[in-house]
């Protein structure tokens, strides 16, 4: 069914069965949809995130950013103060949301190729009166995996509520939100769960969701109201839900379970990433980040220094061979990115490496 393999972390390559799940029309207020599909999805999401009973989930229309905006715009009360950790485009986007919504916040900015400085963050938390901290888990800009355990420990120590943008990692990297004492985790349908784009979701502490009541800066992105309707009207969405996309997501969750769960998926992604990195190095490409900062999600490589190299020719050449890669997003280095999440297997990565080796596009 696919014309090419998307090596882009969202939208990504989905299975034929996920796509087929969209071939029926569904009624938004019928139990077949709400109870059998939506409620089941909400429960499954929580069970993927933790075994604790203190958490619930909310699905939210829009791309992943809508869900981030929904959390920040609902959870930061007038007397709260948020510390935003920024070491890439998605950390920066959270800061932009705070600015647009007029939230009380401070941004701590690091270089895109630099891991967040734990000591500096600790100092900032000590000297300020912060109620919340928000960070990206896997910075998709570079592929860097940020130090979630260390930051979670700092938040615990300083009694600060931890908001994690786990958009490109949830479902592909094992973690327990209760163990990390995460207040809100945000992700979306078209990343590691391997669904199609159209909505995002939030896994949050029940008490934290209830704390948002009456505080939202937006009607359609009101996290509490959306949760309240879903929770008390058996999976109903307040406004038109993306029914086909939600059905596809239900199928994608089933396929995650069939694969063996998050740990098994992480192992496949890791194997993909290691093959990619190794194969690219053999071809003379250098990854942007040192290996210990790599995530199993996406990898940035420096563009070849050959003067004949042109990203667009490289891109078009690979696309003709069945692979779509991603342009770079780092501000001060010339790179391109290759993702390996989605319905992508080690054999695909081997074929990709062979394609790049065979056809030098510069
Ligand atoms: C994909 C992604 C988002 C959301 O981007 P959208 O374009 O709104 O879907 C947010 N944060 C991270 C880390 C991402 O990878």
Automatic annotation (TrEMBL):
<dbReference type="InterPro" id="IPR012703">
    <property type="entry name" value="NH2EtPonate_pyrv_transaminase"/>
</dbReference>
<dbReference type="GO" id="GO:0047304">
    <property type="term" value="F:2-aminoethylphosphonate-pyruvate transaminase activity"/>
</dbReference>
<dbReference type="Pfam" id="PF00266">
    <property type="entry name" value="Aminotran_5"/>
</dbReference>
<dbReference type="GO" id="GO:0019700">
    <property type="term" value="P:organic phosphonate catabolic process"/>
</dbReference>
<dbReference type="InterPro" id="IPR015421">
    <property type="entry name" value="PyrdxlP-dep_Trfase_major"/>
</dbReference>
<keyword id="KW-0808">Transferase</keyword>
<protein>
    <recommendedName>
        <fullName>2-aminoethylphosphonate--pyruvate transaminase</fullName>
        <ecNumber>2.6.1.37</ecNumber>
    </recommendedName>
</protein>
<dbReference type="InterPro" id="IPR015422">
    <property type="entry name" value="PyrdxlP-dep_Trfase_small"/>
</dbReference>
<keyword id="KW-0032">Aminotransferase</keyword>
<comment type="function">
    <text>Involved in phosphonate degradation.</text>
</comment>
<comment type="subunit">
    <text>Homodimer.</text>
</comment>
<keyword id="KW-0670">Pyruvate</keyword>
<feature type="modified residue" description="N6-(pyridoxal phosphate)lysine">
    <location>
        <position position="191"/>
    </location>
</feature>
<feature type="binding site">
    <location>
        <position position="337"/>
    </location>
    <ligand>
        <name>substrate</name>
    </ligand>
</feature>
<feature type="domain" description="Aminotransferase class V">
    <location>
        <begin position="37"/>
        <end position="288"/>
    </location>
</feature>
<comment type="similarity">
    <text>Belongs to the class-V pyridoxal-phosphate-dependent aminotransferase family. PhnW subfamily.</text>
</comment>
<dbReference type="InterPro" id="IPR015424">
    <property type="entry name" value="PyrdxlP-dep_Trfase"/>
</dbReference>
<dbReference type="InterPro" id="IPR024169">
    <property type="entry name" value="SP_NH2Trfase/AEP_transaminase"/>
</dbReference>
<keyword id="KW-0663">Pyridoxal phosphate</keyword>
<dbReference type="InterPro" id="IPR000192">
    <property type="entry name" value="Aminotrans_V_dom"/>
</dbReference>
């Amino acid at each position: 069914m696919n014309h090419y393999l998307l090596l882009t972390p969202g939208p990504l390559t989905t299975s034929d069965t996920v796509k087929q799940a969209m071939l029926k029309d569904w009624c938004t207020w019928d139990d077949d949809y709400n109870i059998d599909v939506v409620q089941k999805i909400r429960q499954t999401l929580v069970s993927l995130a933790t075994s604790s009973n203190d958490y619930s989930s909310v699905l939210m229309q829009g791309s992943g950013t809508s869900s981030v905006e929904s959390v920040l715009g609902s959870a930061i009360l007038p007397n709260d103060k948020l510390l935003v950790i920024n070491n890439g485009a998605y950390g920066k986007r959270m800061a932009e949301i705070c600015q647009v919504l007029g939230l009380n916040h401070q941004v701590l900015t690091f270089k895109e190729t630099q891991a967040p400085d734990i000591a500096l963050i600790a100092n900032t938390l000590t000297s300020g009166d912060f109620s919340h901290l928000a960070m990206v888990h896997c910075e998709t800009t570079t592929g860097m995996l940020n130090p979630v355990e260390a930051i979670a420990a700092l938040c615990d120590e300083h009694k600060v509520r931890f908001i994690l943008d786990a958009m490109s990692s949830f479902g592909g990297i094992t973690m327990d939100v209760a163990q990390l004492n995460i207040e809100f985790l945000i992700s979306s349908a078209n990343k590691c769960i391997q669904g199609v784009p159209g909505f995002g979701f939030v896994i949050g502490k029940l008490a934290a969701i209830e704390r948002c009541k009456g505080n939202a800066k937006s009607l359609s992105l009101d996290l509490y109201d959306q949760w309240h309707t879903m929770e008390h009207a058996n999976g109903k969405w307040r406004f038109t839900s993306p029914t086909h996309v939600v059905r596809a997501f239900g199928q994608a969750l089933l396929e995650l379970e069939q694969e063996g769960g998050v740990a098994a998926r992480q192992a496949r992604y890791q194997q993909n990433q290691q093959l990619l990195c190794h194969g690219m190095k053999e071809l003379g490409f250098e990854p942007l980040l040192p290996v210990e900062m790599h995530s199993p999600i996406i990898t940035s490589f420096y563009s070849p220094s050959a003067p004949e190299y042109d990203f667009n020719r490289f891109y078009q050449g690979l696309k003709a061979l069945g692979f779509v890669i991603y342009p770079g997003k780092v501000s001060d280095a010339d790179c391109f990115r290759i993702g390996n999440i989605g319905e992508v297997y080690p054999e695909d990565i081997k074929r990709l490496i062979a394609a790049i080796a065979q056809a030098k596009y510069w």
